[in-house]
Amino acid sequence: MKILTNTGPLLDRIAISASGICALHCLCLPLILSTLPALGATFFGQESFHVVLLWLVIPLSVVALTMGCRTHKNWVVGVLGLVGLALLVIAAVFGHDFLGETGERFATLAGAFFIGVGHYRNYTLCRRAECAE
User: With contact defined as beta carbons under 8 Å apart, do 66 and 122 qualify?
Assistant: First the structure.
């Protein structure tokens, strides 16, 4: 179990990075596509990019935040992560159809924000407790 505890801060950093990439993609892609429309034909302009990010973010977040909740007994970390994951899944599943483009973008950004804050809190709690680096 010590090996899993040592990976917590690394998983948090990776998940924070993935959430940041998700937010940047959501914010910047429309601007980039207006100047470089050919980018829309690449992987980064396709809906599958969102699916790949979800497949990365969900397991990382579940594992790292669960470990943090168990180790630090701080349920705020878990609640922030669950709210963020729920928003990302809602944005991915319902997307344009029910939320519209602006609603999808808002839900994605809010989800990435909540996940990032949850992982940052988990990371700082772990550093204070000197779990591992």
Answer: no
- Residue at 52 is within a domain: yes
Q: Is 1 helix (H, G, I), strand (E, B) or coil?
A: coil
Residues belonging to the chain: 133
Mean pLDDT of the chain: 78
What is the C-alpha separation between 49 and 64, in angstroms, rounded?
22
Look-up: residue for tokens 């705020």? 76
Q: Write out the residue range of the structural domain in which residue 22 sits.
A: 2-128
Place of tokens 């680096």: 133
| Euclidean distance between CA atoms 12 and 16, whole angstroms | 6
- pLDDT tens digits, residue range 49-70? 777 878 888 888 888 888 877 7
Q: What is the pTM of this model?
A: 0.73
Of the pLDDT bands very low, low, confident and very high (cuts 50, 70, 90), residue 86 is: very high
Q: What is the dihedral of CA 61, 5, 72, 66, to 10 degrees?
A: 30
pLDDT of residue 110: 92
Number of domains the chain contains: 1
Measured distance CA(119)–CA(12) in Å, rounded: 5
